[in-house]
Structure formats: structure tokens, C-alpha cells
Amino acid sequence: MNEPVHPPPNRPASATRLRLRHPRGETRIWVGEGALAPSLDALAGWIGERALFVLTTPRVWGLHGERLQTLFDRAAVTEVLEVEEGEAAKDLEVAGQLWDRMLAAGGKRDSRLLTFGGGSVGDLGGFVAGCFLRGIEYAQLPTTLLAQVDASLGGKTAVDRPGAKNCVGLFHHPEAVVCDTRLLATLPREELRAGLAEVVKMAALLDPDLLSRVERDLAVLLAGDAAALAPVVAASARAKIEVVEEDPEEADRRRVLNFGHTMGHALEAAAGFSALRHGEAVAYGMLFALRLARARDLAAELAPRLVRLLGRFDLPPLPPSLGREELIALIGRDKKARESGVAWVLPAKLGEAVIVNDISRNDVERQIAPFLAAPFLIE
Amino acid sequence: MNEPVHPPPNRPASATRLRLRHPRGETRIWVGEGALAPSLDALAGWIGERALFVLTTPRVWGLHGERLQTLFDRAAVTEVLEVEEGEAAKDLEVAGQLWDRMLAAGGKRDSRLLTFGGGSVGDLGGFVAGCFLRGIEYAQLPTTLLAQVDASLGGKTAVDRPGAKNCVGLFHHPEAVVCDTRLLATLPREELRAGLAEVVKMAALLDPDLLSRVERDLAVLLAGDAAALAPVVAASARAKIEVVEEDPEEADRRRVLNFGHTMGHALEAAAGFSALRHGEAVAYGMLFALRLARARDLAAELAPRLVRLLGRFDLPPLPPSLGREELIALIGRDKKARESGVAWVLPAKLGEAVIVNDISRNDVERQIAPFLAAPFLIE
Question: 20 to 30 A from B327, CA-CA: which of A35, A77, A248, B368?
């Protein structure tokens, strides 16, 4: 726990090996500074002499594509599929075009797909792999902090419909996930901040040591320091693995990972998915959930601590146009909702959450105006 | 095994109960003359007071919709989703519109979907249910013989892409399947013939008694006699259940169900999916597979027996436009193909198949011209 904050130059590549056991097998995971290099042999073996599809964006491909060269040398044929950055790619028509290209390139049931990009590329790629010829194997090589700490693990895949993010998809676990924190050095600060919001989400409810580490190292983490990020990504992955193994398809325990997401998704949708990044919306969503928690006398010590930490994130302000009624309607359409209502994840105290089903429309309504006016001001 | 071929009027409803165990649970199955009525209590309990979506076609809805009334009385809300008949409905854009309607109607993770139609409605409905909010439960109420004996069981779901049938989908098992042979009375003879082709497929390789029964009862079966069809549907379901339970996702044993489908799919695609019904194409596909089998000295007794039986089907002639080269190219794109090649299912003898990977392009080419010229003439 005492890594130097500023690593020496030419620090050697290293990877922590983890695994996630799920109902259909297991995901092999490499996490660390330079973790890609030590994973390549295993990936090449998995690809074998089969058709390989790489789903990526022009930016990621331009920055990092050559790092995968040894994999392409091995495959029977490699087809690089580039899509737009961000949510725009998570579209049914885009998926249809990708399937057509994969068929035309000779894609078969034993073809492999690599996702090489952020959370959107991973969500889309998992969906495309999961439905191509009723499912082919895939691996995730996430290139954003958010995707490394959260989205790449656990088998959730998705595309969007108008106004309804992630409403179409399936659970399809990757065979391998490689989180190389050196790939994060080229990320803008806002992208790192968005990823750290998901880290805070998991740390607050699942890993008190990780929360302390983020508080201590925030400055270098926001600067994209690969050495400082490595143990943070590894601890986040461990926390997520434990929850997903216990509840693979979000029947119960896994819902804890939705802390901040009920209001977060509503904020994203109301802001039009472009004004706020997912992680930024989740940060605000956690602040809202903390209000609901405080109204029930929960999280007395944790709430001010998280408010302080998120206050250091320099979040962009909430768009002024957000309407109370719209947010309430969007919360009612939360995709985790059941006929019995919306389940809110509220922090009880450090390392502990409760999932409550009896938050009324009135409870939400009472908190929305003060939240929108001063999101960081929680009594 | 001695049911009267012509049932007395007002014969009471009866249902054989079966179950299919799969990796994620089990499918409860009702099969029989009038099986819908005795299944309604269980279906109503499964629906509970949740949102219910019924995927159907205008024709099926008009003919049989009122039979489901007691289910709608129970649901929190019922939304009837009508789609076109046949392959046209198995389209990504159609699926997108259905998801939008389900979201707008308040669809949630515990909503239920019923498919009420033929194989296309079942394939599309399973896909729509499997990907809506990452999977909701559904039940199949098949109204064609083909869907009752084959498509509704086993969790295969799909939509098509241009020129590539069933190439997008997932395995998603229904919670319940109800095969009421009284619903088949309104089917045209060609539709019954198409379903019986899939029965012959399973009977030849899995159930010799069923093959004898089809040979004996063919005339009344083709007339849509509900009492005669009931044991045929039940035996087909039993045969399919056994194979699917052994190999849920078609890694090996389940491939036996593809007898007739390698050439069958190619014929369907080459004919444009409208000139030949799926079952008719499978019948011709079996005749082609029997040619390949005979060339290897397999199926010496079975081949003439199946040729004789299929000869009594009055199949529509093969479209004259079918091209050899096109068929060979389409076979190479078979979605069961692996990088190592196409796997052909060849009958060895009654009740026994072999799956072979070493049929060369030449082997296929040699048989195609004589097959197209005289499909029933096998030496």
C-alpha cells in the first residue's frame, strides 16, 4: 500500500491476475501498469487461427492500435470495426451494420471479438458479440477509467433507444478483460474524473480502504498517473467481482452497484446524454441519494465525507434547464424498476448500503428543488 | 397408442405435461388437444399483476385472441403487439419499434411477454424478450405445427439480416410453452406439411415409433385433425427435449436437429424466403443430405423409406431459378459453420445420425445438379 506516487521512468509492466466466476464460466482479468503486454500470450492463444473482429474508435485505434499487432499476426483474418465515440455508437442500426460486416468478412460461431475503447464500445461490443449467431466469445480491452473500473466487468451489454439508455441488451460475460492503466495517460481530466466517480461509488459501499486511498491520491489520480491508478483499478475490480459473483444477474445484491444511478440516469437523460458524462451524472446521483439517506437518518458520517470528496472533483455544474417533473418521470422509468416501484440504493454508513422500495414520489419531490439549487448542500 | 383417428365431437380438452430442464431453470410444457384451457391457471399465476405484452399477428389475434381473455383480466396492463406474418417480422427495426412500445407502455424487468403465432412470432418474441432490459420472462403459445413441434422449444431466438436468416439472436428459454393442437385446425394444408417435415426430421433420427405413426396417419395429420396431431406433437416435443437437455447450446449433440437444415437454409435463402416455407426447404434439405449419406453408403434402408414418405407430402417443386454456385456459396455461410468448415448431419440408419466435417466442396458440387433435376431420385 506504499507505492510511490510518482513512478520512476521505465517502471516495468506488471499485472495483477484476477478472475470472475459466473454461471457460464469465468472471466480472466489482468489489471496493472502495462498489463496489456503480459496478457498478449493468453489472448493470442484464445484467438487462435480464427477470424478476429476489433471494435474500436478512430481515436483509440490511432493512439494504441499498434499495441495489438501480435494478436493480428495470429488470427486467420482481422477486421477492424470503427464506430463513433460515446453513446452515439450504442445504436441498433449501428449494431446491424456491424453484424452485416462480420457476416461479409466470414464471421463464424467460433470467431472472436475484442472491444478496444471506453464504456460505450464495450457495451456495444458485448451486445454485438452476444447476439451474433446467438453468441460468440469476446474480450474487453477498456481504454477509459470508467470502463476499467466498472463497465468492462460483469457481463452487462447494451444499446440505447431514444430516451432510454441501455434498455436493450443481455448478460454476456467476456472471456478476458485487460485493464492497462498506461492507456489512461492520454485521457482528458474530465474522463478520469468520471471514472473516479464510479470508484467512489464502490469504495463508499464496499471498500473503506479504497475510499481512503482515493481521498489521499486524488490529485495524481486525476492527472492520469498510471502507477497510482493501478491499485485503484485493481481494488475496484475486486469489489465488483465479489458483488457480481454473489448475484450475477442483479436479482438482489448486485443492485448495490446502482448507488447514484437512479437519479444519475435521470440526469443524463434529461440533459440529453451529451451535457453530462455518465460518471459525472452518477456523482450528482450519489449526492441526491445521500439526501434521501439523510432524510432517513442514515449515513450521518459518510454523507459529509463523500460530499467533501466529490466537492474536490470540480464537477461541471448541473445544466440549468433540468425540470423537476421531467426528472421524476424519468426516475419512474428506471430500468431496474419493477411493478412494485423503484428500488433506491441508499448508503447506511461506510461500507454498508440499504436498498429501499418505499421512497414515495413525495419523498423525491421534496428533495429535488433543493438538490438542483445546491447539490452539495446536504443537511 | 390407439387413439381414434376421427375424434368424437366435444372430446374433452386434455394436456400432456412435460418439462425441459435448461441451465437457467426449466420450461413447463403443455401439449394436447385443447391444452390451452388447462394451462391458463398456471399462466395467470405466472403473469400475476404485472404488465403483459402479447406478440401476435392480425390473423391469429382475430381467430384465437379471445381464448386468452382470462389472462388479460389478471394482468396489471395488457398491450397487444401485432406484427406481420412470416419472416418479414424478424427484423431489427421491427424489434426496435416493439421495444419502444414496451417502454412507452411501462414495461419493466418483471413484465411478461407471450408469443401467440407461428415460428416467426416465436423467434422474434424470444429475441425481444431476451434483450428487453437485459431479459424478461416469456411464454410461447405456438399456433402452427412447425412452431409446436420444434421452434417453440429450446430457447433459440432470432431475427434476420439481409440474406442471412436467424443470424442475430440469443438463447433465451421460455418459462412455459403451450401446444394446443386445436389451434391447428385453421391452418392451410401447406403449413401442416411444413410442420410435418420437422416431425419427420426428428422421427427419423430420434424416434422410430413416431416415424411409423406419421407414415400411418399422414392423411389425417395433413388434414389438421387435432386428436391425431396431439400424440405427434407430444412425441416430437419429447424427442427435442431429450436432445436439448443434453446439449443446451448446440455444442455437439443438439446439432442432430439440423438434419436437412444445411441445404434447407441455402434453398430458403436462394429462393428468397418466400417461394419455399422453412419446413418445405427442410424436406428438400433432408433429401439432399440423404444423397450425401448414400454416397458414403449410409442409410441404405432409411433413405428409400424417407423418400417415399416425403413423396406423399406433395411438396411444391423447387424454384427453377436456383443456381448451383449460389447454393454452394450459401452453404459455406451456414451459421453453424466453424473456421474448420461446415458440419453436415447425415442419417446413418433409422434412429441414428452422424455429424461429419469432411464433406468437400466437390462432394457437394457432384450432388447438386442431379438433386436439382430430380430431388426424389436417390440411388
Answer: A77
